[in-house]
Amino acid sequence: MAAAYFSKFYKKSKQEKVQALLEAQILTSEDEQFLKETPLLSDGLANSMVENQLTQYALPLGVALNLIVDDKEYAVPMVTEEPSVVAAASSAAKLIAQAGGFETCITKRRMIGQVALKAVPDTTHAQKQLKLHKKDILNKANQAHPSIVKRGGGADDIAIRLIEATEESPEFLVVHVYIDVQEAMGANIVNTMMEAIAPYLELLTEGKVLMSILSNYATECLATATCRVPLNLLKRGDLSGEAVRDRLIEAAQFAYADPYRAVTHNKGIMNGIDAVVLASGNDWRAIEASAHAYAAKSGQYRALSTWKKADNGDLLGSLTLPMPIGFVGGSISIHPTAQFSQRLLGVKNAKELESVIVSIGLAQNFSALKALVTEGIQKGHMGLHAKSLAISAGATDHWIEAVADELKKAPHMNLETAKALLDKAKNNL
Ligand code: NDP
């Protein structure tokens, strides 16, 4: 464990933090140099990434420590504008590490491409034709992107879905193609394949293609993290381990039953997941869209995680969600900070990255639920929020900490109080 290097990590200066990570052999001297340089993209690169580029928008990258996933320890890069997210992930990871950490299970990385056909004259005949020519469809898809086949992936199956007509929409015959995208997220690979097979599907069905596109509902690319927390690690103040466990389980049940709570519960999970997805240079909108659709798979929007009592009384947590991230492709290989994130994490492939991300999601969820059912969420959150308020009030350097400390004791923690405290502190000089 690298934990020995990380005692009171959050209290260290930035240079001391880097030094601790160097000593723990998580960072190299090349990384140290990278961190000293301006973390901006070159203008040429920024220009090639988006259209009409004017400037760049900075967000902090923090590191969550002590995360054990499948017996390996990780230092996890997280990019977010929200205070307390990195701290909550770190503290949950540290607690769960004492119980052995997280275990994960990752499915095959298959994405789904859709070709939607309309005005098919005989859908029964069309479906027969599609089934009969499945091999040809898969061959044509694979011929459109042969390199993914050479890498061991490619299109390997189809499914046919008939979407019945309603008052609001006509009938659609939809062909799904399942594509193993290996180490890529696969959007461009899949879209290329779908556009390539579209004319052939028109021929087979005598229908008209409306669109050919990846589905972001990645139900064939799922990641699951589980953890087991013994009661001695759950005790909090006057509350026994049993009481915290039972309250946490009830909180999860509430989020299962009530969509109003489920959205907030899942937002907390996505606090962690988005931050790592963003740090790794991945498409966080794809992860968000897929996660929320998966949360509603039963027909009602529900909590993505479950918390239960084990036979021996331990608390058992589990989180499953689609995780269509890439380890290569998109802007991952061209964005220098995304490359730094990969080095910091030390992950070797997309599946390992999925394991870390889903575990951070469960850690984040544990932290939020534990706080909610014990001291409440505001104590920890507002402590960190105090710093943001101090900065908004105009505090710089050592004034930030000084104003934040006074703010935490104030009856009303808001911008007005922060400004007053800053004035008072400066006048007392
Ligand atoms: P790319 O278009 O960059 O394709 C990935 C490339 O990585 C492949 O073409 C492949 O090159 C190369 N590669 C190298 N090694 C491997 C490997 N081991 N396994 C797989 N590929 C490898 O990215 P994606 O197709 O992954 O698309 C992701 C991007 O698409 C993201 O930026 C996303 O934002 C964007 N996007 C998303 C959409 C959506 O979500 N709906 C829609 C459109 C775009 P080679 O050809 O040599 O095999």
TrEMBL record:
CDD domains, alphabetized: HMG-CoA_reductase_classII
Sorted UniProt keywords: NAD, Oxidoreductase
GO molecular function: hydroxymethylglutaryl-CoA reductase (NADH) activity
Pfam families per record: HMG-CoA_red
SUPFAM superfamilies per record: NAD-binding domain of HMG-CoA reductase, Substrate-binding domain of HMG-CoA reductase
Pathway: Metabolic intermediate metabolism; (R)-mevalonate degradation; (S)-3-hydroxy-3-methylglutaryl-CoA from (R)-mevalonate: step 1/1
Catalytic activity line of the entry: (R)-mevalonate + 2 NAD(+) + CoA = (3S)-3-hydroxy-3-methylglutaryl-CoA + 2 NADH + 2 H(+)
PROSITE patterns: HMG_COA_REDUCTASE_3, HMG_COA_REDUCTASE_4
Class of the enzyme per the UniProt entry, highest EC level: oxidoreductase
EC number: 1.1.1.88
Domain of life: Bacteria
Sequence similarity: Belongs to the HMG-CoA reductase family.
Protein name: 3-hydroxy-3-methylglutaryl coenzyme A reductase
Species this chain originates from: Carnobacterium antarcticum
